[in-house]
Each structure stands twice: as C-alpha cells, then as structure tokens.
Design brief:
Layout (H helix, E strand, L loop, with lengths): L2 H12 L17 E2 L8 E9 L5 E6 L2 E4 L1 E5 L3 E9 L5 E9 L2 E6 L2 E3 L8 E3 L14 E4 L19 E2 L2 E2 L1 E2 L16 E2 L4 H6 L1 H7 L3 E4 L3 E2 L10 E5 L25 H8 L1 H20 L3 E6 L73 H13 L9 E4 L9 H18 L4 E4 L16 E2 L2 H13 L16 H12 L4 H4 L3 E3 L8 H4 L7 H4 L10 H11 L5 E5 L25 H16 L1 H5 L1 E4 L6 E7 L3 E8 L5 E6 L9 E10 L2 E3 L3 E6 L2 E6 L3 E8 L10 H8 L1
Length: about 725
C-alpha cells in the first residue's frame, strides 16, 4: 500500500469523533473584538472547536469561505480567529468546519447542515449601546401606586371630569384596596416625593435604573394621554399655588373645575414640579441609580394644550387656542382632522385617534414640521441639564407616524438628537413583533423584550398567555418550544441590543407573573380580583426570577413583584405597593439574585449556551473564558436526578463546581455546596419546582489560555 495513503487512513482512525457540541461562537465581547466597532475599523472574529477535532474552519461571508487561523488551544478546545476589515455597512456571517468528509455550518442555532439568513451573526459598524445599561437591573414604577409622599398634591374627589365621570381620590386608609374596574380616574396619591422617600429601599434592593411610566401632565393615573410634554404633572410633582373653587359638573360651559385648571396650568406649579423631578434624578444619581422616562410620542391626550377638546386651556394665560377650539389654531396641522366645525360648541369635528380612541388623538407628523421639531426638542430637553434623565422608553414606537417612511425618518432623527444631547442616553422601545428594522444602529438601541424573554419563559413555566387570557398545556414545560422561540426572536437583535434589552416578567400592560402561576384563565371583570391571589406558586415565581437574573439583558422588576403583588391584567396589575405587608422572603430572594447577577461578569456580558433540556426541565450556562454560571430548572411536580453535561461551557471535565443558590417549594438557600464534575457532567438531584445556580471559575487566571483575541481584550 502507498505509504501516503496508509498514513492518511491511519490518521483518520486516530481522529476523535467529530463533536458538534464543542463548536461555539457569538457576537459578545468573548468572540468579537471590539464588540461595537466603528465604521472602517478592523475587527477580530473568533470561533471555537473541539481540540484537534477539525481540519479547517472558515468564516462564511457574502457567499465566500474565508479561512480562519488556529491561534491557541486549551485542554478541550481549539480557537480560530480571522481579522475582518469593515466598511460602513453591517456584515452577516456564519462559520463552516470540515473534518475529513464531514462539513457542518454554525449559525445562531448551533451546528447545522444548512445555514439560514435569519440566524446569521451580524455586526453593525458604528452601533453601540450604553455600557451602563448592559445587564443593568431596572425597576419600573407606576408612580400613582408606589408611595404617597406628599398628600398636598393629591387629585381630589370630583376635581375634574374624564371619560364620563369624575376623578376619585382613594382615602389614605384604603391604600391596599383593589383598583376599580374603570380605574383610570382613580388616584391613590403616589408621587415623586414618595419615590424620593423610598430611594434607600431601592438602593438596598440593588437596582441600577428606575423606569418611570409617564409623568407629564395628564388627567389619567396612567398618563399615556399627555396634556403637556414640557412639564411634570403637579399631581405627582408639587403644588405650590392652589386657589379657585371646585365647581359642579355643568356649572361652567367648559365643564371643568376652576381649581383643577389653576393647578395644572399655573406655571408656578409646573416649574416647581420640574424642579422636584430634577432633584429626584440628582438624588438617584448620587446612589448610582439611573432614571429612564416614558416617551408617548405616537399620540397625546384630548386634554392636550394643542388640541384642547375639553377647553381647559382656552382662556388660560400664556396658551394659544387649541386645534379643536379654533380652525386657525397654530396647532391645527398637528392632528389629522376629517371635517370642519361651524364655530359653535359642542363641535362635531372628528380626527384620527390611536386605535380609534378619541381621547388619544394621533399626532400627525406628516402634516407639521413644527410638531416634528417640537417632539425632537422634548427628546433632547429631558436628557439634558437641569434634568439629566438617562434615556427614553418609547411607547408603541412602531406606530408613530402615518407611514413607515415617516416612522423611520423620525426615529433616525430622534436618535441623532438625543445622543447628541446625551451620548450615554438609552433609547428603548416598546414593540411587539420583529424589531430588526429599527435595531439597525440608526434608530432604537433595544426593546422591551416580550418575544425573546417574557413570552417564552411564561409559556414554559406556567403555560399561560401573558394577559392570563389563555392556557396552553402543549407549551407548559415544552423546552423545544422555549428554545425555538428564544433563538428565533433573539436572533432579531445584535448583541449590543440584546445586552440592554428590558427583560420583564410583568408590567403595567399584562397580568402579574405571580398570578400567572395559578393558571387561572380570566380577568378581574370575570373572576374578580381576589382570584388573582388564589392558588399561586411562589416556587415557580422564584424559578422565573432566577432565569431573569441569569439571562442576557437588563432584568427589569415591575414595582411590587418583588414583594408578592398579584393581579390580573390592566387595571388589576396596577395594585399599590404593599408597604407594611410585603413578602419579605420574596424580597430577600430578589436581593440575593440581584447580588449574584451583578457580581458575575458572565451574567452581565457573557455567552449563553443550552445544556440539557427535557419536559419541564430547563438548563443553560453563561460563560466567559474564565468564569461560568450554570442554571438548572426543574419545573416538574416531582424530584428528578439527571446528568447535565457542562464541559462545553469551558468547565474542566474533572473539576469542582459550587452551588450558590437553591430554591424549591419550601423556600431558598444560598449556602454553598460543592459538587463534582466527572467526565464533563454534573450529576444533580433537583427537588420538585426548583432552580439551582452553580458557579465555576478558573483557580488561577495565569493558566488561562492567552490568544491574540484575549490579549486585545485585556488591553481594552
């Protein structure tokens, strides 16, 4: 036999079996350097294979195979790199490996025989997101329901009339009552002074960011129907001038009490409220806490000074006539009117409202450059001195404008202006569906992560739809569905967006997660609010929190979730924070998981890889070159014992790993327990309805693999 042929056959028999699980790459800073490159910069892209397991590794880009260079190895892996000279356009790529006659590709799904465009890795030159927001722990506050720190600014009974009835002040002694079914006119008195009073609590909890639901002048407690974008509502701010008498409905032609008009139109109250907000941000910043505002720029409210359908600004000093009041109003082209009025009250003129709601008139950017510029100025104003807010959450951002062209044009200019005013500000959009058209480096930074976090996790752990409107037994505990959804929707974001995405379990639009654990389908109008508290499972809630605090992105707590607040969807999800009646065990669990989250570099910016999944079993690892976290979830109603392979997270095949958190039906413990990794696997017995978190890190970083990539990373 020819000696060359013999050697080839001999080497083939000696080659280790091709190991798909060893293949790995992503677009975190572990595998792309720099992770957020500028245009025309050279980047290094890295790929991992099994040790001596492949003949060649390629980066597949624009239909061309680019040979990669093996630069280093560890006990288990080889590391390949390639330098790529960027232009000013995104690049999308995958990898190809060849081992003898075996060829595999690697995209965001893992090792595949055929790559797909939807799952290619993408790097966008010039796109960066704020460093402070990567993995930041956020806390959402619906201010009327958080804490009443100043009773002098409370909305009064019958202070004004809105959508068919009067405003209602909830007495102080009824703070814990359930919200009314038509609760938009119902005020509990929570305010900015209340948040100031509780900053120490928030700091002790460990949060990094406060996200406020809207704070601008508005007649509702939710404030998504804004009257005046230039001022904080005195009812959550400060009332220093309070004159005028309360009038009965119908006593005055414009139907509103004089006292109300004075309270929210008098510039002394408005300026004092703005000053209080600036003070709150200053105090939050002193504690290392950032502040994000809610920007409702798709629509305003019928009370808005530009429209003034309720005629509260008509004779107020310093205000122009509203577009509903006068055909020659300077704001007439801010809205899309469908007819004209004859100048007599009541007017019958109609205009576009968001989803047809006439209390939410849609802003007509196509009709007014002045409106376009005004809202851009608002975007700049609140992230600049003297306020220094740290960014915007954008309400129904994909709906803004009457056309896709206007929508993208506006958000591109909004990003430019806001980032120019405050380069460190975040732009975070509410969005359902594919966000990729906006996450292009020129518009939004990221999104509220419904599709690639809240929904898949809710289905897996509870089988419930996020409004508690449906139960799906086929999705409960379905690990394949969970990972399929996470992979597909996660692939619609690049790493800069994903690392700052808002990962919530609950918010003001959906049922509380703790209520979803009872698997009751319905709402407060069909089941009553007490049903939201019945049959809940706090062990499942702790599973969810553990995943939330160990998943890529910014874990975001909806006020009161940490204290055990329940509730069906809006308005029941807007219950008050239960001061004096908190679930302290649940608060302490949040504190421990937040502490763990913030102490581990792999949880802030590391890579993610599934471990082993089965029915009602979820397991994954987060890792860097030198540190790893392993999360194991048993959502079954019985104990399980399984061997979890962890070697492909970089954990040595014969080593020790430490359990730092265990939660089950009886509570939780942070007592450290050592486990042995044998043959690359971790044998664990998990109690019913439990989650366990393990950590592993190299004992001596000087033994860590040093490559060109790692050297560059350390220089940074």
């Amino acid at each position: 036999m020819d000696s060359y042929l013999f050697n080839q056959q001999y080497m083939a028999t000696m080659r280790p079996v091709f190991n798909k699980k060893a293949l790995y790459s992503d677009t975190t800073s572990n595998y792309v350097f720099p992770q957020e490159p500028t245009a025309y910069e050279e980047i290094t892209i890295r790929f991992r294979t099994g040790r001596d397991n492949v003949d060649q590794a390629y980066m597949e880009w624009n239909g061309v195979s680019h040979l990669m260079t093996k630069v280093s190895h560890s006990e288990m892996f080889d590391f390949y790199e390639i330098q790529v000279q960027l232009e000013n356009e995104p690049i999308s790529y995958c990898f190809k490996v060849q081992s003898g006659e075996i060829i595999y590709y690697f995209d965001q799904r893992g090792a595949v025989t055929t790559p797909e465009a939807d799952y290619l890795f993408t790097v966008i030159p010039g796109f960066s997101t704020p460093e402070w927001a990567k993995g930041a722990v956020m806390y959402q506050i619906y201010v009327d329901r958080f804490y009443n720190g100043d009773e002098t600014n409370d909305v009064l009974d019958r202070e004004y009339h809105y959508i068919g009835d009067y405003s209602v002040k909830v007495p102080k002694e009824q703070w814990n009552k359930y919200p009314a079914q038509m609760g938009i006119r119902e005020f509990y008195g929570g305010d900015l002074q209340g948040v100031l009073d509780k900053l120490d609590y928030l700091q002790d909890l460990g949060i990094d960011v406060i996200y406020f639901n809207p704070l601008f002048v508005s007649p509702s407690n939710h404030k998504y129907d804004i009257q005046d974008y230039d001022y904080i509502d005195p009812h959550v701010g400060k009332i220093v001038y309070d004159e005028g008498r309360l009038l009965e409905y119908g006593e005055r032609e414009n139907r509103f009490a004089e006292r109300y008009i004075n309270r929210i139109t008098d510039k002394r109250n408005l300026e004092a409220s703005n000053e209080l907000f600036a003070h709150l941000i200053e105090e939050a910043h002193k504690r290392g806490i950032r502040v994000i505002m809610d920007g409702v720029f798709n629509h305003c409210g019928s009370f808005n000074k530009w429209l003034d359908r309720e005629r509260i600004y008509e004779n107020a000093e310093g205000y122009e006539k509203g577009a509903y009041i006068a055909a020659d109003s300077p704001y007439r082209n801010f809205f899309l009117f469908h007819d004209s009025h004859d100048g007599r009250w009541p007017y019958n003129t109609t205009y576009d409202g968001w989803w047809g709601h006439d209390t939410l008139p849609k802003l007509h950017y196509e009709g007014s450059q002045e409106l376009f510029d005004y809202i851009l100025r608002i975007g700049e104003k609140w992230v600049s001195a003297p306020f220094h807010a740290d960014g915007w959450r954008l309400d129904v951002a994909a709906d803004l404008g009457m056309s896709p062209e206007m929508n993208h044009r506006f958000w591109q200019e909004f990003r430019r202006r806001v980032k120019q005013a405050n380069p460190d500000a975040i732009i975070l959009a509410e969005h359902y569906g594919d966000p990729k058209p906006w996450l292009n480096g020129k518009e939004w930074d990221t999104v509220m992560n419904y599709d690639a976090f809240m929904e898949p996790l809710t289905w897996f752990l509870t089988g419930m739809q996020k409004h508690s409107d449906d139960f799906r037994g086929d999705l409960l505990g379905n690990a394949d569905s969970f990972w399929g959804a996470m992979n597909y929707h996660g692939a619609r974001m690049t790493s800069p967006s994903r690392e700052v995405s808002m990962n919530e379990l609950s918010n003001h639009d959906h049922s509380r997660f703790l209520t979803r654990t009872n698997r009751k389908v319905g709402r407060t109008n069909s089941l009553g609010p007490e049903a939201a508290n019945q049959g809940i499972n706090k062990a499942v809630m702790r599973e969810a929190v553990a995943v939330q605090m160990t998943w890529p992105g910014a874990p975001t707590i909806y006020y009161g979730d940490e204290a055990g607040v329940c509730g069906f969807t809006d308005p029941d999800n807007r219950r008050t924070y239960p001061w004096g009646n908190e679930d302290h065990e649940l608060i302490n669990f949040h504190k421990e998981m937040i502490r763990l989250h913030k102490s581990r570099p792999e949880l802030l910016k590391g890579s993610l890889k599934p471990v082993l999944n089965d029915y009602n079993v979820l397991s994954y690892g987060r890792f860097t070159d030198t540190s790893r976290t392993v999360v194991l979830v048993n959502n079954n109603d019985h104990e399980i014992t399984k061997d979890f392979p962890v070697w492909f997270l970089g954990i040595p095949k014969e080593s020790t790993i430490t359990r730092v958190m265990l939660s089950d039906e009886y509570g939780f413990t942070t007592s450290k327990v050592s486990y042995t990794v044998s043959g690359g696997s971790l044998l664990v017995t998990l109690p019913k309805t439990s989650v366990a978190v393990f950590i592993h890190e190299d004992e001596d970083d000087t033994t860590a693999r040093k490559s060109t990539f790692l050297g560059n990373f350390l220089k940074k």
